[in-house]
Write a structure and sequence with these properties.
about 130 residues, about 0% strand, mainly alpha
Length: about 130
């Protein structure tokens, strides 16, 4: 095999590893996830896993996990309007609603409550347009 072929195979392998990591995160969204957990799941050392993840992703592992959780929580806020924000925060691995709200606002630019209201308003407006 040529060096280019080996590099292409390695890249494909590592991209599959990143996808496998995404699946693992999705299956464990409501648990605290550490670099050690993710590296163990990938059968790599923490150092090697972090290096590979950074090489083939635009985010660090922590940024990715945080974004993934907060985006899934946002979906849950919309589809489950009766569930309290504190419950959603706890369900997605946050220790309290204030740290969840800060992270949420940093990502979406609005608080979880305002996000939920905006989404509800846009769904209601959509019903009237059609």
């Amino acid at each position: 095999m040529t060096k280019q072929t080996n590099e292409a195979i390695s890249k494909q392998t590592y991209i599959r590893l990143i996808n496998k990591t995404e699946d693992y995160i999705e299956q464990h969204l409501k648990e605290p996830l550490s670099l050690k957990d993710l590296a163990n799941n990938a059968h790599l050392s923490e150092f090697h896993f972090h290096r590979i993840f950074k090489l083939y992703s635009t985010e660090t592992v922590n940024e990715f996990v945080t974004r993934f959780k907060i985006e899934r929580a946002a979906i849950f806020l919309c589809v489950s309007p009766k569930t309290s924000i504190t419950t959603v925060a706890l369900d997605y691995g946050y220790n309290d609603s204030s740290s969840f709200s800060r992270t949420f606002k940093r990502h979406f630019g609005v608080s979880p409550l305002n996000y939920r209201k905006q989404q509800e308003s846009s769904r209601t407006a959509h019903w009237f347009v059609e």
